[in-house]
Amino acid sequence: MRHLVKGKRLRRNTAHRRALLRNLVTSFLEKERIRTTLAKAKATRPLAEKMITLAKKNTLHGRRQALRFIFKKTVVKKLFDEIGPRFSERPGGYTRIVKVGPRAGDGADMAILELIGTEYKKKGKKKGAKEKLKEAKAKKAKA
Asked: What domains appear along the chain, each with residue ranges and CATH number?
C-alpha cells in the first residue's frame, strides 16, 4: 500500500525526475502553454500552481523559494510581475490540462498544459497583397 506517497515516478530516478519537472515548470511559466505527455502534465500541474501561489503573495521569501526551483531569473520576474497579479483574485486552479490524443511515434497520450486565460485562438486567414493594397487605398481615401 502506498500510504502518504504522492506523485508519479515517471520511470525516472529522483534526480532525473526533479530536473525534468523543474524544466517543465520553467518552460510552462515562460510560454504559458506546453504540449507534453498526459502523465508529465499531471505531475507538472501541482508544482506550477504552487509557484503561482508564491507569486500571488509577492514576498521576498516567496521569490527566493521560486528562484530555488525555477531555472531562469527572467521567468521568476515574469511570474511575480505578470502571472501572479493576473490570478490575485482566484483562489486556485490556475491551469488546465487538455487531452490532444496519441503521439504518432509511440502512441503516448499527449496533452496541452495551459494557464487559464491563455486559450488557443484560431488565427484568421492571412490577407494577400491585393487585399492589403485595397485596405491601404481605403484608408487614404478616408483621410
From this structure: 14-120 (3.90.1030.10)
